Every structure is written in C-alpha cells, then in structure tokens.
Amino acid sequence: MTAEEKPLTGLVEKTRGVVDMPAYEAGDGYSGARAALVSMTPADVVELVKAANLRGRGGAGFSTGLKWSFVRQGDDADGGVKYLVCNADEMEPGTFKDRFLLERNPHLLVEGMIIGAWAIQAEQGYVFLRGEYHEPYRQLRRAIDAAYAKSHLGKNIFGTGFNFDLRIHRSAGRYICGEETALLNALEGKRAQPRQKPPFPPASGAWGRPTIVNNVETFCNVPAIVRNGAKWYQGLGKGDDSGTKLYGVSGRVRRPGLWELPIGTTIREIVEEHAGGMREGYKLRGLLPGGASTDFLVEEHFDLAMDYGTIQAAGSRMGTGTMILMDDSICPVDMCRNLEHFFAQESCGFCTPCREGLPWVEALLTDIEEGRAAEDDLALLERNAMFIGGTTNTFCLHAPGAIEPLASALRYFRDDFQAHIRTGVCSYRAPGGAAPG
Amino acid sequence: MAGQSVSRSQPSRRKRVLASMARVNIDGKDYELEAGQNLLHACLSERLDLPYFCWHPAMGSVGSCRLCAIVEYADEGDQRGRLQMACTLAARPNMRISIQAPFAADFRKQVIEWLMENHPHDCPVCEEGGECHLQDMTVMTGHSMRRYAGAKRTWRNQYLGPFVGHEMNRCITCYRCVRFYRDYAGGEDLEAYGSRARMFFGRQDDGVLESEFAGNLVEVCPTGVFTDKPFSKVYTRKWDLQSAPSVCPHCAVGCNTFPAERYGVLKRVTNRYHGEVNGYFLCDRGRFGSHFVNHEKRVRHAGVRGADGVFEANGAEAALANVAARCAGALVGIGSPRASLEANFALKQLVGEENYCPGVADDEHETLRAALEIYRKGGFRVPSVTDVERADAVLILGEDITATAARVALAVRQAVRGVAFDMAREAGIPEWQDAGVRGHGQAAQSPLFVATATPTRIDELATATRRGAANDLAGAGFGIAHAIEPSFASGTQDDFTAAAAKALAAAERPLVITGCEARSPALLRAAANVVWALRKQNKKAALVIAASEANSYGVALLGGGLNLAAALLRMREGEPALVLENDLFRRVPAGDIDLAHAVVLDSLETPTAEGAAVVLPAATYAEQTGTFVNYETRAQRFYQVFEPAGEVAPSWRWLAEIGKRRERAADWPNIDALTAACANGTEGLRRLTTLAPEAGFRARANTRIPRQPQRYSGRTAMLANVSVHEPKAPVDAETPLAYSMEGENAGDQPGAVVPYVWSPGWNSNQSVFKFQQEVGGPLAGGDPGVRLLDDESGSPASYGEPPATEQRNGTFLAARVHDVFGSDELAGYSAPILERAPAPYCILNPDDARELGVADGGGVRIEELDASVQVRVDADVPAGLVAVAQGLPGGPLLTSHRVRLAADADFTPRSGGDPNVIAKG
Lengths: 437, 921
Fold this sequence. Notes:
By secondary structure, chain A is α/β, with parallel strands linked by helices. Chain A is 44% helix and 13% strand. Chain A has three domains: 21-230, NADH-ubiquinone oxidoreductase 51kDa subunit (Rossmann fold, 3-Layer(aba) Sandwich); 244-327, Ubiquitin-like (UB roll); 332-423, Up-down Bundle (de novo design (two linked rop proteins)), CATH 1.20.1440. By secondary structure, chain B is an alpha/beta fold. Chain B is globular.
C-alpha cells in the first residue's frame, strides 16, 4: 500500500514520529477542510460522506453521512446552537487505535472535525478524551493550539465566515462514557448514565441541542474523502465496506500491534502476516474480533473478512477491529470471569439486569473457576446470560455487550465450563497455583 | 348525592397532546387506549396488573427498573415477538402485545430475583411490610426461591431529620426518590451516589432533609428505605390501621388525607389522592402536623373553674349546667377558622348573627372579605392545584406560598416546566418520557415573577423577584395591571412590573397568586386587577388567594355581624362568650383578652382554654365529621377516623347541648341535618348539600363502607387488658362509613367516602389506580368536594387607585413572615414539626442591622411588642423593613404596621422547638 492508500497513517509512516503542523501541511494537511468550507455546501459534504459509505469506526458501523443528515438543516433548523462531539473515550479492553491517531496524527482529527462541523453547521466542538490518555491529550492540545494559531479553528475559518471552536474535555473515567448519550451526560456534568432513546442526539443531544457524536477514527477518515472523493474511498476497501481500517492484535502473537489495512482484510492475514502468527508453542483457540464486548470467533472463522457485514453474519461484531486473541494456555472460564468483572464494575448502576445481573454472573464464573460451582450453576449462568443479553432487556447496550463473549464462550468452550464443574479444578492452572500469565 | 368533580376548564397537558385513541390488542383482547400514552400507564388505566417500580404516575417513565416487560408482536403472524418495557413504548394503533407471555413473565420474575440479591430478608421488622410495593411485585411475579448465594451489600444509614427514617439496605435502586426529591420538588440535598451495584441514595452528610416535601419519599419509595419516622415510633401494620377520608387541617389548600388510628392514637397521615387538589403528594406540615391529636395537652374532660382558680372536672352534665346558667342571656360567639363549618354555623345559630364573630383578627377578617368580594365578582375560575400546574406564566404577589400553601408551591414548580413540555412536544419527545423532556428542556422555564416582602424558596425558579412592604407590592400589582390594560388605574412602574406585564400578557393561561398572610386587602385588589386586565386581553387568567387556616374561607363565607375587637370589648365588659376552638392570644394582644366569663370549646389546653371559666373538650378533626372550605371555596368533608375517648365530643354536639338548654337554637340530630341547615340557612352555601353522600348511602351489596381493611386483626384482643369481653363496635349513625372490616371498599363509590386504598394483590398505596377513572385522572366515583363559588362569567370593574407607599418616619415597616414548620397553630403541637420549628426571629437588611448594631444571630427588641427576637440578616430584604416571624412557639404577635427596633445586648439565642422552654426570656 502506498501512503495515499493509507489515509490514516500514511503521513505517520513518512514522518516516523508525531505529525506536527508543518509536516501535516506538507502532506496536503487542511486542504480537505479548506475545500469543504470554500467550495462545498454542508449538504454536499453530507452527501459525499454518505456516498463514500464511511461507517462509524467506534464499533456500531452506522453510516456517518446518514447520521449527519439527521441534523435538521437550513430552513428546518431552529437557528440555535449545535454541537459536534468526538468520542475519544477509548476504554474498550484491547483497543488502542484512537490513541495511536491522537498521539501521532492529531491534526487529522482536528481537520476531520472542522469538516464535520461545517457539514452539520456546528460552531462548538468537544473532544471527550479518556482521562488516562495523557500523551494523546498533550499532542491534541498542541495540535488544537496550532490550528487556532493558523485560524483553522476559531472565527472566520478560511475566510468563509464560518466559526468553530474546539475544546478538549478530559473524562473522569468510566467505560460507559463510550456510550454516546452517557458521554453527553458526563459532558454536561451529570451522572454518566445513558439516556433513553429517542430522542437521539442529532435531535436532542448535548444540553438538549442537536449533536453529532463520532469516533476519533471516523473523523480521521473524512479529510481524505473530501480530498479524493467517494469513489476513491470506496476503492480502498476489499468487500462491501469502504476505506481502510486500523486493525489491532493483542495476545501471544509474534508482533502484537496495529496496522492500517483495507477494510475487509481477513482475520488470518491480519494475524499471520501482520502480527507474525502465534508465538512458538501456542495455538490460537479463539478471538474477540473487536474488543471485549464482542462474541468469540473460533478457528472456522479465521478466513473471514474483517468487515461489518461478514463478522456480523458469523454471529459476532467487528466492533473496534482490535482483536484479543485467546490461545490454548488461557482458561476460557477465567477469561470470561475477568471480562465480566470488568463489565460489572463498569455498570453505571441505572438498570436492574446490568447492575444486579452482571455481579451475579461474575460470582457464578468465579465459583466455576475456583471449583465451588454446583451442577445447576451452569443453567443459572445461562439463564442470567439470556435475560441480560437481550438488546431491549436492558436500558443500554452495555450489558448485552458484556454478555456477548460469555454467551459465545458457553457455545464454543462449553466443555471447559463443564469440566470445571465436574472436576472442581481448573486444568489450566499449575497444580496449587494461579492460572498462567 | 355524591360530590362530583367539576369539569376541567383546561384540558390536561396530556389530553392536549393525545387526542386520538389506539386499538391495542393485549393478550388477545382489544382495548381502546389513548394513542401516544405510554403502554404501562395505559394498561394500568385499564386496571390490568402489570408490575412496575420506577415509573410513577406523576413523574413518568425513565426505564431503569425493567420490571414492566411485555412482549410486542410485529403482526398477527409474529409468534415470537420482542421483549419491551411497557413504560418506554407509546400506544400505537394496531399494536399487539402480551403481558402474560411466558418469556415476559419469566423475565419479570428474574428482575425481582436480581433485586433480591441485595434486598434484606427483614420484612417482619420492616415498617413497609404489608404495604410494600416490592412485596406486592414479588408475589405478583411469582418469585419465591432465591438462588443467589453471595453476601448482601450493606450500608450505614443516615440521620435525615425528625420526619424520615433511612434504611438503605432495602434499596432496590429504582431512582424514584431522587426523581421526586430533586426533579419534581426541587430539593438539592438528596442525591444518587456511587455506581454499579453500589448505588447510595442519601445526603452528602447526615442531616435534616431540607425540602418541605421530603415526607413524600415515604410514599414514593416502593419499599422500606424511606419510612415515616414518627409512625415508626408508634408502629402499626397498615392492615391493622383504621382510617377514614379526611382533609388536612393545617392550611387552606385542603389536601385530602388518610389519618390512621389504632388504640385511640392517631398513628400517621398519608396522602389521599384527589385528582384536582393534592394529586399524589402532601407537604410535610400536612403529613407530620397531626400528631397534635395525641398531645399530652389534649382537653379530655369538661372543666369548670372553681373559686380557687383550679378546674374541676365533675362531668359533662355539671359543666353544661354551669354553661347554661352563664349563657342564658345575650352571648358573644367567637368562631374559628380551624373549626368545622358546621361547628361555626351551630355557634352562629346559637348566639345569633349579630353576636357571632368569625374569630380572626380584624385586619385578617377584612382581608378575607376582600378575597371573597373578588371571588364573587368573578370573571375567572379559581384554579385548583392541578390548574395551577397548567399555568404558563405565574405572578406571585405578596405571599410566601411555600410557607402558607406549600402544595400550591409544589404545583408552581410543575407549572414553570410548561415551556420544557412545549419544547419536548416540538421535538417529538413524549411528555411521559421524563428524562428526555428534562434533558431536552434543560434550564428552560416558563415565566415566574415573585414579589414578596422576604426571599422565598421558590425564588430560585423566578424570572425576576421584587421585594417590598405590602402597600409597595400592591402598587407594583396595580402597575402591572395598568401596563396590560391602560384603562385600569395606574401604579408603580419599574423593570419588574414591565417584564411581568409583558410575560403575563404573552401567556395563554396566566396565573396570579396572592394571599391573606400580609393582611392587606390592597394587595388582593392589585392581584385581582392584574387578572381582570388579562381577561380583557382574552387570556384565561385566574387568581389564587391563599389563606392561613383550613377553614378561613368557611368562616368568611358564613359571615357574622361582629368583629373581633367588638367581641373582645363586650367580653371585657363582662358579657359571657362561647369561644370555639380558638386561641385568642395568637390573634390579639393579651391585654385585649378577658376570659373571666368565657366558655372555651377546644381540643387542646391553649392559653385561651387555660384562662377560661369553663372548658369543654372538643374533638379534633380526626375524631369528628365536618367540612372545611379551601382557598378555591371547595367544601370538602372530613370523616371521623375514630371515636374520641371520654367526654370529648365534636364542638357542634356541645353547642347543640348548650342550645337545648337555651330557647334560641335548633337541635340537629346528626351532621347531615346540620350541614343541610347550614346550606339552607346561609346565602351562597346551597351547594353544600351535594358535598358528600348522606348517612344512608350504601356501597355495593347494600353494605356500609368499612374503615378497617379486610385483614384488620386483634379486634377481640386489643382491649383484653381492660376486659376480656369484646366491646361492641361503635355504631356510626352519621355517615356511610362503619367501624368495621365488613363491607365493600371497592372504589366505585363516591370519592368522598373512600377510607383507604387497597386492592387484591396491591397492598401498597400504588393500589390507588384501582380507584381512579384512569391513571392520574379523577377518582372512579368522582373527586370529592363541591366548589361553592364558581363563576367564570362577567367582566368586573377594576379597583381604583393603589394605596400610598407607607413612609418609615424613623420606624421600620413590619411584615409578617410565615414559617412552614411552626407557624401553624395545630402543627405547632405536633412533636416532629416542633423539632423543625425555628426560634422566633426577624429578618433585617444588612445596612439596617449594622445601623442598629446587631449581627446575624444577635437579638433585637421590638418596642411595640415588648419582645426580643433573634436577627437573621439578609441582603434580599429591603432596607427599612423588618420581617417578623409569626405564630412560632413563644414568638411575638405583630399587631402594628410600624415598629421601633433596638439592639438587645442581653439577648441569648436559643434553638427552636418546645414552647414550654421558650416562655421565659
């Protein structure tokens, strides 16, 4: 792939460091924003992004252009304030793609947001940044300051009369803030609980005003789309989806990391070619394709293309596209226990199935892992999983997401659960010791 | 027969939005539901048993508990359906849902099992047991076996003041408490803390809950986290309580209540739903004020003062003989705004119109007369509390309604949300989607203008506030009216009046609220002018005139030829007097009162009773049947909850007995006869006859309506310490209610005679929907009461010139301050209220305080009143004005419009509370 085929990381590869303002401008930086503001109407931009088939990179894969089109425009709008928000609260376990973009190529986000702001005619933007992201904050701060200095942000951008202010809000740190309406509540200074939908943020978001929330990676795709057009962008993808995707791999591979690849690259290619395959002595048993809240995929799926439709058809979700690999030294029960501990802890406490159900799930998994479980605990676990997992059973999708790895583990690794209960020991643990690694 | 609810002048907010009906198939049967209404609400309106926790009829849906799960089917062919929460779905035409679908039923059962992970197994020692919504829902869903084997979460509970107990371990995290306390009632000191399975609902630190509506937490909480603390001290299970429909005696709003009794003790007061008055909520004065019924200073026996000055209790006959001898000739009768309409009428009949005085101070009497004059001139319908909620712009003129009519203040808090509802409708957010409406509306508020002498709790919602003495505020009122309608007399013009006039004129249903507390007829006339000016602009403007006591309007309507000053003069001249349930020391200076020849009928040993020649023990409102007339001239019947012990009897009975011993008065065999005589004998009170069902009314199956629930227990044993022979139950010849657990309280009888709410499977107060025509609507048999004046027609002439602003002339202008806890006489005898009552105080501007040489917390002497009070310094009080708290235990009575002040260097501050400690100093 050439640099121009890597709209997200091409410049980073060239500079081998942080892409600062001079480097960014040298690589045609801000020409996309300039082109959008000077020669395109907001509606043109929305149509272009729609045509490019850019889908939300936060995990849900919703059409970005379509989302933008939900904001009432022109005569339909009430003339009041609108907000553009970047969800940079990257807290999905195993996911570090936004961090890479923020640390290495922060101007890309700023430019993407300027174009997004123009598209929905928002004059105020926020980057809702994960609290622990100190280096990303430093780099983004520097980039925003530089953009203000160049008048790419602030009043009368590119002499068009368009104003757009961008602020960074550093999160106090809750996983649920990745849910866009919980993010908006947190931004408003309220409890980070998701909101009832409808109303959806494009109709009533931050402070009750029309608001668009997009992921970091999503925004970062926009400048190149404006520069090179929808056709070009579609051509970057391999299957039905368009563009490139930051894929990541963590686990016992030779080269864990992150790569910008055509969207639709197969799992096998990502794991074997880019991550270098499994380390000596480990066999890949399963993987979570897009963060902790996605269903396990197993061997039969390894030749599938990592795109939204294909992974969904396989019963999982591409999610963030950053996989967590489970090799044959890892106990699936223990891995589930670890995950459910995380999700129970990160429940906002608003609705019953999530708040009360997840801790029970964690307790049952602990009992199974530690050899205290009774025969019917597996049925109880499945009952909990079934009732927590329905997408309308809970107030938001936190709990159904939490159940995805467990429900699929119960499907693919059932023998492990049964063996734990039957024998009262975890065979992955060294006798008398803790589970390895 | 039954008092029917008067048709609403405004369609409800809900109805305005949702006009059409939707045919919805529920479990195979078709129902016509209100299109757009949330399905839970609509199902309950059809009286279907659909479990829920977090939804509340007055607060809408948030979708947190996930209990009201149903299955929704795409169409007739869809066999599988999709689980949905009924409270989050709008009823749509051709919808198909199932409540009974096994998957939904199983899910609901699972929700309870989840909640039970942490809920303690303490039902036997929990105050909520037997009326616990969580118990009901647990049984209804069928959950019985707990499979969770882990440890339960435990909390340290908080001290929340004298009203509300706290037991957080029982919490099921439904968020209703904070939604009521913060979102609905505007409180700030109760919060949801923490996250995940460790949510805590309480205060930042231990301390008294500040809101005057905190007591509603007891009823809003679906289980036993927030409990009625005074009730816990004398606890009885709900099923063992005897209760009757009643009316709160602590202000003129007339909230409907259920006082409940056992062993001759009034145990507690809970909300009695009224679709037009109090809805689902009471204020804390109402809920906790009635423990005066159990006060140790209750008068239990008739007493005649002997030669040695000590009362002798030689029985009712002896006392009545003494009274008859005393009162053979001309006789002064002093009535009371806290006594029933019937007792006042009986007194008036007994002594004659020319000798009857309503028993309020002359300035208050004049103010009440001005209020009635305005109501009678008409041109607007006096708004009910629910009408207040629908106002789209509000002006409060001269009255601290949070203190004098707290329930109306709570309604104003809802009214200012009107614009947020408009915005939500605009954005397609259903009105019942509470979090969505609030999130979308943010800080948007309908206009509220507050003009009062001192800062009030509701100022925080105000678009603008203005301070001044009564005449100054009246001038501003005239100014607003003139700005709206230039042909009206002019008054003060300033930024406040201009903004208020503009906002009121721009509204569709503007509302003005004033009151009698300032004792200023001019203020009322100014308020009336504003309303009439708005009516001339074709606005549906209306006026609320609050009054101080439960029956202020009742006595005002009865009239009477004597004012209090003249009555007291005749008493000082040696004429005998009958003083009805009235502590004159709260109304006039002690020097004006001579009780040497007074016969006092009262329930409490007030200073007036202590000074009387004869004292007759009167029943409290809970021990008799009678009528109060509220601020909207709505006459409402309160029923005897329990028979008083010993010689205690309703005042009208005593008066009838006295009457029998005189030639003059009629004899009334029962309360119906007396009410009828009052209706026929008083101009304008004819509608009283339709107040409530007569004694002969019978419910279903020709039964009386039981005061005791079906599970009332211990009847044969409760008096076994006295005698093992079970006494005959009292027979109630006066009302359709019975002292029994037998009979039907099915809920379809007239709303006035619903003595408690209970329905099979619904043991908690949530059962009220089984007694309503629809959720949040009128009671099934009609909302109780009848409005005596109800004349919207006519366009009355406005009032003339406003009063001149009073000049200080080196003195301070004195304003009355009413305190929600402590200023009401009867509540002042209630132990939990007394704990909240502040020490007597006055409020001064910082400049004035500096000039006088007193600091906040110091004392000033009020020369004219010969009293010293504690100073509160507040920059929001105008210079030259001193606001003196009235009615507080031990506090001075303000009798002058101007006072001189001086620093009191010897003043020792003390805490509020028990008046017996206060008297000295």
